[in-house]
Amino acid sequence: MEKREELYRGKAKSVYKTDDADRLVLLFRNDTSAFDGKRIEQLDRKGMVNNKFNAFIMQKLEQAGVPTQFDRLLGDNECLVKKLDMIPVECVVRNYAAGSLVKRLGVEEGKKLEPSTFELFLKNDAMGDPFINESHVVAFGWGTAEQLATMKQLSLKVNEVLSKLFDDAGLLLVDFKLEFGVFHGQIVLGDEFSPDGCRLWDKETRKKMDKDRFRQGLGGVIEAYEEVAQRLGVPL
Ligand code: ADP
Ligand code: UDP
């Protein structure tokens, strides 16, 4: 496999073509952004930790029957993935109220949500990733009703698998964001799963162990990511 030119530079990752039309290289950088890219800082070791964390989680999901983009790790900061046609929609599953839900509905942070909720946001930084519903996705042609049904079913399956995995490590999976794409006609989980895109609280103390430490200026961001990785047994 040969790495070729940069295809896209996102806020946290760079995406490269390869000599295989079906494969891309994802490079995890140390850039850490919040508030739709309005605040960006470099955090030492973040690229490496998220790359290895993501590889570990994607492999667990694949074993549980969720089709993922993951092919293999290439080094500390890079992995090889399937090249997906991304659906520009973020799927958010919540088990406890936090973040934008608390702001939008004025509910108490930490309230247990039963059943877990499933939300959609348009992936568009300039518009601040607006909240959308299923009919918008179909009406604007971002995805079909069938693709949406699969994305929802897979998101809830991911929640089932990972809630258990994190629970066993003494962590609550509060909420998370997933992105899907199409690979040879099949809906496949893309992008990344790392503490940048989910909320994890210590089960006993409710200490925040995710990107909220960065968003809220709590400090110890990477130390918390590393502790989560260590509790899960992710080799760093
Ligand atoms: P952003 O675009 O939100 O700033 P990143 O910095 O994480 O995000 O950039 C990674 C980009 O690569 C995202 O736009 C994401 O949708 C896209 N992407 C992730 N995985 C794949 C994949 N397997 N195939 C094609 N594109 C992908
Ligand atoms: N999230 C993300 N990228 C986004 C927006 C949200 O990874 O562009 C994640 C976020 O880390 C959290 C979940 O999705 O785990 C729900 O986020 P929320 O809607 O509460 O938004 P926030 O106020 O955190 O931006």
Short synopsis of the structure:
This protein has 236 residues and is α+β, with helices and mostly antiparallel strands. The protein has helices at residues 46-63, 99-105, 134-139, 145-168, 212-215, 221-232, and strands at 3-9, 13-18, 23-28, 31-34, 39-42, 70-73, 78-82, 85-96, 112-122, 131-132, 171-183, 186-190, 198-202.
Uncertain stretches:
none
Helical element count? Answer: 6
CATH superfamily of the largest domain: ATP-grasp fold, B domain
Helix content: 25-40%
Strand content: 35-45%
Named at the architecture level, the CATH assignment of the largest domain is 2-Layer Sandwich
What top-tier CATH class of the largest domain fits best?
Alpha Beta
Present as ligands are: adenosine-5'-diphosphate, uridine-5'-diphosphate
Cα distance, first to last residue?
24 Å
Radius of gyration: 17 Å
Number of strands: 13
Q: What is the third-level CATH name, the topology of the largest domain?
A: D-amino Acid Aminotransferase, Chain A, domain 1
- Write down the overall mean pLDDT: 97
Structural class: alpha+beta
Order of helices and strands: EEEEEHEEEHEEHHEEEHH
For the sheet with most strands, the description reads: 6 strands, antiparallel
Based on CA inertia axes, which overall geometry fits? globular
User: What's the number of domains?
Assistant: 2
Q: What does this molecule look like?
A:
The protein has six helices and 13 strands. The protein has helices at residues 46-63, 99-105, 134-139, 145-168, 212-215, 221-232; strands at residues 3-9, 13-18, 23-28, 31-34, 39-42, 70-73, 78-82, 85-96, 112-122, 131-132, 171-183, 186-190, 198-202. Strands 8, 9, 10, 11, 12 and 13 form a six-stranded antiparallel sheet that branches. Strand 4 and strand 5 form a beta hairpin. Helix 1 packs parallel to helix 6.
